[in-house]
Amino acid sequence: MKSAVTTVISSADAAGRFPTISDIESVKGSFDRANARLEAAEKLAIHIDRFTSEALDYVYGKQSYEQANKDKCSRDIHHYLRLINYCLVTGGTGPLDEWGIAGMREVIRAQQLPTTAYIESFSYIRDNLNIPSDMGQQAGAEFKSLLDYLINALA
Amino acid sequence: MLDAFSRAVVSADSKGAPIGSSDLTALRKYVADANKRIDATLAITQNVSCIAADAISGMVCENTGLTQPGGHCYPTRRMAACLRDGEIILRYVSYALLAGDSSVLDDRCINGLKETYLALGVPLANAVRAIEIMKIATVAIMTETNTGRKMFEGINSGSGAECQDIASEAASYFDRVINALI
User: Fold this and answer.
1) Same domain, A20 and A62
2) Neighbour-count burial for A46-74, b at 16+ CB within 10 Å, e otherwise
3) In this structure, are A87 and A135 located in the same domain?
4) DSSP state of B97
5) What is the pLDDT of residues A19-41, one digit of tens each?
6) Are residues A28 and A40 in the same domain?
7) Any CB–CB contact under 8 A between B140 and chain A?
């Protein structure tokens, strides 16, 4: 699983060297940002059901998608938010890349899913994130950058 | 390869649940101890040859037959291989310590180590002894309980006494290698 620390260790190991000062500084940099990330992960875990249902109500309220798919869409949004929660914990995009984005295009094409529904949902969550009542400024920035990363991958 | 963070992620994913407050307590401690962990890693990386080469030399001194004709560290080519292996094991311990998780050590160093040594005819008891000496030296340098001068410059000056917990973690990684060999 790719994270800030394992990426550094992998490249040190590939070169057969001990962690250098610059390796250690890059690990330290990820620790310095860790509190914001962990806060975002904690708050996302608390609000994950509400974020999912609010986004879903917004998207399906527009009547442009088949209402029969609402439950499945809810499950998927929840799934992606959970992976974002994991990314916030690891400090890298590993969980989204390995478990969410790899193979996503093939699945979406095979099932003929409307990707715009997902994009609209995540955009809604990003644009309606309430700072500071949902999470703090720094934490919100970390969360939003991962939402953007996922939206770009879906687009 | 996992670190403390991705270990939490893998175990949460098997339950299909997001990581919440209760799981984050241990990770917050890992973050709070980051400077100590970094100092402890520096204690190893600044003393690699001291820890590894001295441990091998110490082990050979206790078993002088090793460098005699017919011994396992004779000729120098085999002694050099021994020195190299000591350094490799120490390197993987330093990775595990930085990651706060033993998976890199398990997957890339310990897995198959005993089988390799048996196949090459490396005496396991001597290998274990060398690792033991590396463990003792590492802990002493990390906690600044070695005799003589201070052996490393950390980010937190004079933090040796604070590295106690991390030093026991480092010792546990050496023990992991030892337990895999016996």
Assistant:
1) no
2) ebbeebbeebbeebbeeeeeeeeeeeebb
3) yes
4) H
5) 999 999 888 888 888 999 999 99
6) no
7) no
ipTM: 0.88
A14 and A39 together in one domain: no
**pLDDT digits over A103-134, tens only?**
888 888 898 888 899 999 999 999 999 989 99
Size of interface A-B (CB pairs under 8 A): 109
Q: CA A71: distance to chain centroid?
A: 20
From B28, B91, B99, residue closest to A5, measured CB to CB: B99
A132 touches chain B (CB under 8 A): no
Residue of B nearest to A15 (CA): B91
Please indicate, yes or no, whether residues A27 and A100 belong to a single structural domain of this protein: no
| pLDDT score of B157 | 53
- Looking at residue A7, its amino acid is T
For residue B27, give the nearest of A28, A38, A95 by CB distance.
A38
Same domain, A14 and A81: no
Q: Low-confidence residues of chain B, pLDDT below 50?
A: none
Q: Is the pTM of this model over 0.90?
A: no
Please answer yes or no on whether A85 and B18 come within 8 Å at the CB atom: yes
Q: End-to-end CA distance of chain A, in Å?
A: 25
How many domains, in total, are found in chain A?
2
Domain that holds residue A28: 1-32
Please indicate, yes or no, whether residues A66 and A127 belong to a single structural domain of this protein.
yes
B70 reaches A (C-beta below 8 A): no
